Amino acid sequence: MGAGDEHAFAQLYQLLVGTVFGIARAILPNTTWAEEVSELVFVDVWRTACRYSPDHHGGGFEWVMAIAHRHAVDRLRSTGDTRSPHDMLEQLTTSVPEQTGAQSGLVALPPIQRESLELAYYGGLTYTEISEVHCIPADKAKTLLRDALISLRDRG
Fold first, then answer.
1. pLDDT digit string (tens) for 12-49?
2. Domain identity same for 72 and 126
3. Which residue blocks in the chain are alpha helix, DSSP H?
4. Is 1 part of a structural domain of the chain?
5. Residues in domain RNA polymerase sigma-70 region (predicted)?
6. Domain with 118 in it: what CATH number?
7. Is the torsion defined by CA of 21, 125, 98, 25 positive or negative?
8. Under a CB-based contact definition with an 8 Å cutoff, are residues 144 and 116 in contact?
9. Model's pTM, two decimal places?
């Protein structure tokens, strides 16, 4: 696809469009924005495919999901989202998409680690904001996120 292979891009699109939309929809408050972000993701993938390197970006799936997450969080932040972190956490516990593949790993995490990852990934919160939600020091929130990611990686 890095050489502009339209057929390969079409296959990638068909394979990942549902998951990309699911991530965008979990982060964004409405379907229209999620659809717009999904389109931006695939435009970005097409434009930057020649620079993709598994050594620097991980697998292709992870690379596309990272682009999707970044675009969705950027869109959310550009809207001046005024939901409180507690409201976000409540919404996330009922709306995290099942098709992300990491869902089974998330369930196995201790609740505070799972909630912290959901707030960071789907809510776009920083570790400082997560520390405020859980009323813990910022360095403890950073450690929670790191430990949760290591645990997911080891289960993966």
1. 999 999 989 988 888 888 899 999 999 999 999 999 88
2. no
3. 6-27, 31-48, 54-57, 60-78, 85-95, 103-108, 111-121, 127-134, 138-155
4. no
5. 12-79, 106-153
6. 1.10.10.10
7. negative
8. yes
9. 0.60
